[in-house]
Structures are given as C-alpha cells and as structure tokens.
Description:
Radius of gyration: 17 Å
Mean pLDDT: 95
Distance between the termini: 36 Å
Order of helices and strands: EHEHEHEHEEEHEHH
Strand content: 15-25%
CATH architecture: 3-Layer(aba) Sandwich
CATH superfamily: Isochorismatase-like
CATH topology: Rossmann fold
Number of domains: 1
Amino acid sequence: xxxxxxxxxxxxxxxxxxxxxxxxxxxxxxxxxxxxxxxxxxxxxxxxxxxxxxxxxxxxxxxxxxxxxxxxxxxxxxxxxxxxxxxxxxxxxxxxxxxxxxxxxxxxxxxxxxxxxxxxxxxxxxxxxxxxxxxxxxxxxxxxxxxxxxxxxxxxxxxxxxxxxxxxxxxxxxxxxxxxxxxxxxxxxxxxxxxxxxxxxxxxxxxxxx
Length: 210
C-alpha cells in the first residue's frame, strides 16, 4: 500500500470556541489547541500542507462574524508564521462547499485529509462524511478536536459523551481516529493509521454488550 499523501486541515480554531456559549468543553480546550500546534509542527517538518480554515456567518451574525474579534484565530496560532498555510473561509459545516478545497487537493495529489479543530459535533463530522463522497480518505485527531454540551428538543448530552460517541462513530466508517502522538508517528513512518469498519465495530459491539 502506498504512503498516504496527506494534508492537515485545521478547522475553525477561532476565538469563538474559547469564549462564550460555544467554548469547547471536551477535551479541555487549552489541551486541544496545544495538540493542534503539535500536529502543525509535525506537518511542517514533514512537508505536509497545512490548511487553516475559518468559518463565517456574515457581517450581521451574532457569532462567526468576521468584523468581530472572536472570528480571529486562537492567539497561539496567530503568533505563528502561517505564510505557507493555505487559508480557507467557509460558510457551511463541511470545509468543501464553495471553497475550492477539493480541486486544490486534487491538484496537489492529496488523497488523505487529517482533521483537527472544532467542533467534533459539527464541522469535523460533516467534513469527514463529505470526504467519503469525494473519494478522499479522512483521519481525525481525537485530542486535537473538541465538542460542547448540547441540549435541545431531542435530548441532552454532555460534551464528553458527544465527543467519545462521535469518535467511535467516525472510526466505524468515515475516518481513522487516533491521538495526535500516534499520527505524528504515522507521519514519520509514512504509514496510514489503523481504521475500523462498520462490520468489525458491530461485531465488537455485540460481543461487548452480550
């Protein structure tokens, strides 16, 4: 099997997720932003392209408003030299619609995207699912992503349960899920991450709950 041709996609590491209602709750946001930095370091050292994504909801929106400070990248990322990064602004949960990113990946012969950033329960899962329809393999860094507590008419779930559940779901079909340290090792060895599938996950689930 040939080595993955990767790009690191850092989704919406914006101040919006560190203040206010959308503040990431699990894993701890100060830890996940450090893991994002670790992934960027490894990518840059290995010559893997880094794509930095920011979400906009428009100039009149209460959140993700590009005229407000919360739209900006986390300060630890703003302090880095991002001159070699590809910068993308998106309007949908997935990073692909109307951004030109799919064409850019194809032009650069990239077949695998590694997802870090926020939120697990929105843009990360949407991008991983969308990648499948585009013939692109996905990897998700479990400790470089994060979720929030959610409550609505359908139920209430804490952030840890949201994050853990979605990581298991992603690894069962849409993505290879691993800690950042394991991904760094895979990058160094130019190997793919291990990934489960729906059949294996179903069999193991049946056995665990028998």
